[in-house]
Amino acid sequence: MKTNSLKNRTLGIISSIALILSMVAVALPATPVHAAALTGFIHSPATSLAGATTTHTDNFTTSGELPTTGSIKILYPAGFDVAGAELGEVNLAGVVAAADRFTLTVSGQTLIITNNGAAVPAGWITVEVEDIVNTTTSDDDYATVIGTFLGGYIDGPTTSNATFAITPGATFDPIKGPVRTTITVSGPGWTPGELINAVTVDGASAANTLTVNGDGVLSGTITVPATASGVCPIVITGDTSGAQTFATAFTQTTANATFTPVKGPVGTTLTITAGTGWVPSDTISTVTVGTVAAAKSLTVNSNGDLSGTITVPSGLTTGDKTMVITGAISGAQTYIDAFTVTTAAATFAPDAGPAGAVITVTGTGWGLSDTAITVTVGGISATDTLSVNGSGDLTGTITAPSGLSTGLKPIVITGAISGAHTFAGAFTVTTATAVFNPTQGAAGVATLVTVTGSGWVPNDTNLSATVGGVAAAADTLAVDASGNLTGTITVADTVPGGTHNIVITGDISGAQTFANAFSVSVTITLVPGWNLISLPLIPTNSASSNLASRISPAGSVYAFGSYDCGSKNWKYWLLSPGVGNLTTVVDGKSYWVYAYNQCTLSVTGTVCPAAPGPGAVPTIYQYSLCYMPTTNPDPDGWNMLGFKSTQNMKAQDYLAELLKDSTGMEFSNSKYTSLYRYDSATSKWISVGKTDNMTPGAGYFIKMRESGKITPPCD
């Protein structure tokens, strides 16, 4: 019994162990008894460049299936950088696997490509891996080692039976450009310290500075020869590495440039257009025109387009000139007979005359269709009508500016294209003189004036004249061959009283102004008895004795008198024997004049105050009116007011400052209450309303409500 019991227990234990072993067997993956070699092993590319980032592809055939979660292991030789590798296409017996079917991880030099899908049957597999950086050591016997794996190798590991080569590398910058481009070269994988025996570009020998250092790194430059065309292979031959060919390393382009204009004088600004085919972002170092260095403002954009300007340098002779534009990378690009240098010529007629003279200009050899012409004469800017046609012919006129001293003056003509051209001593400035006789006339009376002068442009034509802005007959004015002016002008009877400029204008001499050359007097008629008058002009000489001398007939007037509101005193002047305290007679006041018989008073002067200096604006002047209350109410606020004007004017306009404030708003109460004039013919006082005219030569009494002032016009 004991024996059977022991037997039974032993059998139970054995059965339990068998069951456990069977369960473990189910849980563990099947491990092949032995790994078969991969067959049909092909690696591409067969040759690639040292140090280059390359896509590598391995083709092989498995003898066993690749289970789910199984992997393909690819071992790369030392020196290859696989850290940044990316899985490309995986092809399973002609079917491209979905992008997420396999994933790539890196362990040292080994790429682990894991199957995330169903088991892959035995057969042909292609694995493409991108972004592998080749070793920098050249050799023709590199190979990868591949196997399929799950807990152990299923097939392999097997070394490729078709090795691949890593050849000396080179990168080129730029990869396109015109002939003579300087290409910067660098690349690993060369025999350390070897000599570069030869370089060709598109089959032609190329100048170079290539060297190989102790680490086998190639560096230096290559200059693209003039015969290169299209897509150019570059062949670099080392004395150890031999001839290494880079089949599509460089593409030759044509460095174009179109110049506008194509001819003109030195100083011409050329605009570059259609400048294609240059090395992108190149720097233009020099430009020569006919071997002479030229100023330039040229740039090359990122597309290789050249643009900007070139200034044709001085020192060039006339004729066709070759232009050379040199880029730091694109090299020297030659344009034969690209520009024709001309002489910017100009003639001036007349070559002498006063400021204001109109100078006719003709010339040749200027920049074609030049624009924005500016001119100076003797350093002073001058107005002009100059233009240049499509043939480079210059025409137009220049007006000699004011402010020039007499003597020889250079003329400088500047065009936007042609630049600045100086014509030394081109024009002689003279002084155009004129003497007038007489220099005075009466208002309302035409006056014949004889004119003589010198310094005018010889034989000037179509002379005309104005006096005080009013046209004067000038039919007899003429200038002879020596520049002498003779003839007469007739001052029109419409010229107002005052001192006026005379302007004489010739077709060539221009407008010549003679300041304050002629005075027109205003005549005031006096009747027997008392007359209330005022001066319509600012008198040339305000002395009472001078005014007395201008009465005709002489001895017709007894006295002048006026009342001063401020001092409340009367002042007078007795013409014979010429005594009194009224020593001056001025504009802005009115005066009593006692005449024995009818006579006239001739007043000369100006309508505006004199300017404080040449070119300055006359100072604004005003008349003050007072209001001085006293115990006697009658004279309070009365002022003797003059009317300084040669033209009729409404009282509300002349006295506007007594009626309105500076903004034009009317006062609720005007500053004056009454305005009167005295009619000498009837010996009556006439009230003058706001809309009534005040007349030249008449005097007025104005009663002020408060002090004020008025500003007379310059009519």
Write the topology of this structure.
Elements (H helix, E strand, L loop, with lengths): L1 H26 L11 E6 L2 E3 L3 E9 L9 E5 L10 E7 L2 E2 L5 E6 L2 E6 L8 E10 L5 E4 L2 E5 L3 E7 L4 E4 L3 E3 L2 E2 L4 E6 L8 E6 L2 E2 L5 E2 L5 E6 L7 E8 L3 E11 L5 E3 L2 E3 L3 E7 L8 E6 L2 E2 L1 E6 L5 E6 L7 E9 L3 E12 L4 E3 L2 E3 L3 E6 L10 E4 L2 E3 L4 E2 L5 E6 L7 E9 L3 E12 L4 E3 L2 E3 L4 E7 L10 E4 L2 E3 L5 E2 L5 E7 L6 E9 L3 E17 L2 E6 L3 E2 L4 H5 L2 E2 L4 E8 L4 E6 L4 E2 L9 E6 L3 E5 L1 E2 L16 E3 L12 E5 L6 E2 H4 L1 H4 L12 E8 L4 E4 L5 E2 L4 E6 L3 E3 L5
Parallel strand pairs: 2-13, 15-22, 24-31, 33-40, 42-49
Antiparallel strand pairs: 1-3, 3-9, 4-8, 4-11, 5-6, 5-9, 7-8, 10-13, 11-12, 14-16, 16-20, 17-18, 17-21, 19-20, 21-22, 23-25, 25-29, 26-27, 26-30, 28-29, 30-31, 32-34, 34-38, 35-36, 35-39, 37-38, 39-40, 41-43, 43-47, 44-45, 44-48, 46-47, 48-49, 49-57, 50-56, 51-58, 52-57, 53-54, 53-56, 54-55, ...
CATH architecture of the largest domain: Sandwich
Low-confidence stretches: 1-34
The dominant shape is elongated
Can you give the mean pLDDT? 89
Query: What is the CATH topology assignment of the largest domain?
Result: Immunoglobulin-like
CATH class of the largest domain, anyone? Mainly Beta
- Percent of residues in helical segments? under 10%
User: Distance between termini?
Assistant: 161 Å
* Helix/strand/pairing category: mainly beta
Radius of gyration: 55 Å
Number of domains: 6
Please indicate the percent range of residues in DSSP E strands (runs of 2 or more): over 45%
